[in-house]
């Protein structure tokens, strides 16, 4: 399975990331969905990609940990502490459970969020 980002348009990844967040910012599942989610900082254009078998529950856990100043990702916590209103979480893509690692790695690599974003490292090296 190939994971497509937005479209086949040739645009800068920074612009593409901002557009992805704009297009999907209200794409929060209301029921159990397995897939890839993102937490995007509008002010810095940095992103965190994650995976879950229940995206809504996982996003709510991130939100709770950030609000309680107990998130394990220190860079993400600092961004939240600085400006919580600039972070948005959303579903990027619904993905079958057996492809979660591959899909998450794809998004982390494509947007280089392990170098320039909030991901600590690439999942599949």
Give a quick rundown of the structure.
This protein is of the alpha+beta class. The chain has helices at 13-24, 55-67, 74-82, 100-111; strands spanning 35-41, 46-52, 87-94.
Descriptive report:
It is built from four helices and three strands, in the order αββααβα. It is an alpha+beta fold. β1 and β2 form a beta hairpin. The two termini are 19 Å apart. A three-stranded antiparallel beta sheet has the order 2-1-3. The chain has helices at 13-24, 55-67, 74-82, 100-111; strands at residues 35-41, 46-52, 87-94.
Order of helices and strands: HEEHHEH
* Mean of residue pLDDT values: 82
Measured by DSSP, the beta-strand proportion falls in 15-25%
Largest sheet: 3 strands, antiparallel
Q: What overall geometry do the principal axes of the alpha carbons give?
A: globular
State the strand order across the main sheet.
2-1-3
Number of helices: 4
Rounded to an integer in angstroms, the radius of gyration calculated over CA atoms is 14 Å
**What's the assembly state of these chains?**
single chain
Helix content: 25-40%
Distance N terminus to C terminus?
19 Å
Give the helices and strands, then pairings.
Elements lengths: L12 H12 L10 E7 L4 E7 L2 H13 L6 H9 L4 E8 L5 H12 L14
Antiparallel strand pairs: 1-2, 1-3
Features:
single chain; 125 residues; alpha+beta; 3-stranded antiparallel beta sheet; 4 helices; 37% helix; globular
């Amino acid at each position: 399975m190939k994971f497509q980002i937005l479209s086949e348009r040739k645009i800068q990844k920074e612009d593409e990331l901002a557009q992805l967040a704009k297009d999907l910012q209200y794409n929060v599942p209301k029921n159990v969905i397995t897939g890839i989610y993102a937490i995007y900082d509008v002010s810095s254009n940095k992103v965190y990609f994650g995976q879950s078998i229940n995206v809504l529950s996982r996003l709510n856990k991130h939100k709770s940990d950030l609000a309680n100043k107990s998130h394990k990702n220190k860079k993400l916590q600092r961004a939240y502490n600085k400006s919580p209103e600039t972070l948005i979480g959303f579903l990027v893509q619904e993905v079958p459970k057996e492809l979660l690692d591959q899909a998450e790695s794809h998004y982390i690599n494509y947007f280089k969020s392990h170098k320039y974003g909030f991901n600590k490292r690439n999942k599949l090296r």
